[in-house]
Amino acid sequence: MIRRTFTGLYSFILLMLVALPLSGWVGAGQALAAPGHKQKPASPPKSPATETARLYAEAVAKGDRTKAGQVDFACQFRLVSAAPSGLKSYPPADDPSYEACWQELKTAHAPALKRDDIGMAVLWPSAGPLVFFGDELPRMPASAFVMNELGVSPPGSGLHVAVTGSRSLPSGSFRLSANGKVLAVPTTLVTLTVTYQDPLASPVTYASGTVKWTNTIKRARKSLKSVATQWVVFTGLKKHGFPGDAAVLNLPVVTPPAVPGMQPEKIPFTTEISRVLPESMVWWGPEDQPGTLTAAAARAATFPELRDRVALLNRILIIDPNQVDALTVLTRNLYAVLLREGGKGHDLIVKDPALSLVVSEFYWNIYAQSTRTDLSNGMEMGGFSQPTPADFLFRLLPAAEALAKVRPEQLDNRFRLGVAYRWNNDQQAAIETHEALVKEIPDSRRSAKAEALLQLAWSRLHKSAWNRILHDPEINRAYADADASLAVADLPLDKFLAEYTMAYSMIFMPDYGDKAKLLHHVTEAKRWFDEVPGKTDEIWRYFLHSELLKAVLDADPMFQPVLATAEEKKG
Q1: Residue 489: how many CB atoms within 10 A of its CB?
Q2: What is the rounded CA–CA span in Å between residue 398 and residue 418?
Q3: Which residue has the higher pLDDT, 20 or 363?
């Protein structure tokens, strides 16, 4: 059976070889002689149509109203249709028709220049023109992809145009007057590939495959590196009274309907339009200009305005989502801004930087257990004119997650990530993040170990406080974590926090646990607090008068001496 099959196959191959023309043998031999060899595709030959398309695209990119208007079919059509005998030459450079045509072009490009970045979604350039092709991308004219906001002279950062193809189309047709003769002209479809030279200022699109599910889900964006555009070019126009022989049909001619209520005539009629080829889009990636991205991250860190810093960092991260320098600067900045917003909430004057950080973190720890409005209501959802703490938090989380994956050795970022999870009410993620830190940090690093244990205790406390589960096993674990932190703590600030955390955890225990022990922890917390640099009585009262803790202390006379002492100092 095997031999019979092989014999039949051999006969078939022999028959095909005999029937194969000699030219086929030559082609096959050349292909076999040079395996893997690819010839560079030849550039299409120059023609009036290809040169006109290139000239028009470059004129738009340079902002040259006169040159663009002279080879724009719609602009020239209006002039010729108003001149019964046609035009022998172009109008002078200062003719108002060029400016009128340019304004029509600007109107067509306007949807791609409308900024709608909300909160911390802002993209660089933060103040200048940002070209963003969103859902309207397929409907944009080809000229939008070479608009002068992107072009070869300011305000654009640079682009290059190359002719990469052309083919004939059925003749385009139009009438110069309502009852005039239908004119037909040779029509060519020219493909121009546009390449943008600056990844930080090139146009932006949605990433391939993204779908709009809801308004609250932000779709991934990418920085466009190159794209192919097609342009409809008419030739042979001079014999019909046009001053030039070739022109680009970029925008259709807008004409009023012959009879009110009727559809206006389509001028001109063509089988294709000048547009982008979406399937040709190529985006900037991490390997294209890594040095540029590194330098940009360092530059962003120096900007005085948060909006500018975040905009440039966001632009870097849509090109390389794992760019370490950008992720580091962004996470540190956003966490610092959250602490600053916490400072506005507690309104205390704290001169010592370490104590200031602790007080502001404590503000958000308590706030996240109760009201949560500022941490959950973003600028867009709340209809606010400025970003809210929620906007900072929502942008911080994915950036910190990405940095934790590519640089797990950056422990400070993982500390911030766990705290951000807690403030965002991602309870289990916060606990797991800080549990991992406790396991990884060796006992020899006493200060880092004490910090990790304290953060883990507060992540456990948040879970119990938000869920209002007084018998939650996490309470006893939180107490144990704080106790373990006290055992390795060296600094008075860490010892104060450990004692205070144990006292705070006890208010969630049945009957507040051992009241004498609670009083002991509060007393010890005060003793260590008095040794903290930058401490003030106002800051102590802030911790002591925390809503839940003060309710417990107010309810039993045995705690009155502690409260009374604070009140006396206040007076």
Answers
A1: 24
A2: 12
A3: 363
